[in-house]
Structures are given as C-alpha cells and as structure tokens.
Design goal:
This protein is an alpha/beta fold. Helix content is 31%, strand content 20%.
Length: 193
C-alpha cells in the first residue's frame, strides 16, 4: 500500500505514507530538524509544482492538507490532475483547506482570546489580531477557498463527487485528517473512477 502525504510539512506519519515536501531546502544541514528529515526513510524532497514523482496508477491514496491555498488556481488544477494520474482506479484522496465560510461565520468573535474555542489554537498572545489574518490571509496563501471554489478545482482536475467506499486506505486517511486543523477546515473526499 502507498499513500502520498503531499506538502507534508511537520506532519510526517510513518509508512504506508510517503511524505513529500521541500523541507530540506528550508533547513540548513546543521539543524536538528534537518537531521530528523534526513533520517526519515519515507520522506522525498520534491517541488510539487513540478508534478508528482510517481508512475501512473501507482498510489492507493493521497492526503493533501492545507496546500492547495498555497497555489494559484492553475497550479492547483495541475496538481489535482497529477493526483488523479498517480492514483489507482478506486484510489482515495482527501483534500483539506482553510474554509473561508467558517471564517465568515465566526468573524464577529475572531479575537485572540477566542482562538482556543473557535480554532483550537492556543497561541492567544499572538500579536496578529484575528485568526483570519493569521491563517486565511497568511502571506504565502494565493487563494481563499470555499466549498464552491474547491469543487471547481477538483472538477477541473478530473474528479467528481461520489460516495467514498469504505476501505483500509479511507480509514488511514480518516485517522490523519482527524488530527489536522479540522475546526476551520473544509474537507473534501474524492475517489478515482
């Protein structure tokens, strides 16, 4: 079984995940974080804007959490097409992004002291006045996503909404998504037909 964790950042679970990101270029060789990354057998250093370094139909699942918003819309569609290319027929992908609709709903209460309740964030001494500024409009984000805009990207990438069958891959992905910023995330499941 092979499950890709694309743009993994600090969340790098063990096999069957293969964690992919450009972390080595961000940490000098002398740092503890770099030593940890270098020791991980299931980590691949790769720029995902250049595609996914796997053969067609070679992966059972994909975990894509909080990365689509770092791409412009054309890059996002290209990445989703790559995901479809590497998934086996029946392969499952879960995509998670900051949910602009949720930020709108809670905006009147979006103050540092409410962050633990609204966003499950404990950094209440953060100098940024709203979590919308800190997370939705983070300087590296190129898109603000809603259910409709994410649907458009997934559709243009070749996926359609369908029931996700129960499988071992789905269970593994559910366990991963439950640990990953759910309070303010929009989560979409797709399967390759």
């Amino acid at each position: 079984m092979r499950i890709l964790n694309l743009a993994c950042s600090a969340y790098r679970p063990p096999e069957p995940f293969i964690n992919i990101d450009i972390l080595k270029s961000q940490f000098p060789e002398t740092t503890i974080e770099r030593a940890k990354i270098d020791a991980e057998r299931n980590y691949i250093e790769h720029d995902l804007t250049k595609g996914i370094p796997f053969e067609d139909k070679s992966c059972d699942g994909i975990f894509l959490s909080h990365f689509v918003e770092h791409l412009d819309v054309q890059q996002a569609v290209a990445l989703i097409k790559e995901c479809k290319r590497v998934l086996i027929t029946g392969g499952v992908m879960v995509v998670s992004v900051p949910n602009a609709t949720y930020f709108r709903e809670v905006y009147p209460r979006d103050k540092n002291e409410n962050w633990p309740e609204l966003f499950e964030v404990t950094d209440v001494n953060n100098p940024i006045p709203t979590f919308m500024e800190a997370a939705l409009f983070f300087e590296e984000h190129k898109q603000v996503l809603t259910e409709d805009s994410l649907w458009c990207i997934l559709t243009m990438g070749g996926f359609d909404e369908t029931e996700i069958p129960n499988s071992q891959v789905k269970k593994i992905l559910q366990d991963s998504i439950s640990d990953n910023r759910n309070k303010f995330s929009l989560i979409k499941w797709v399967v390759k037909k």
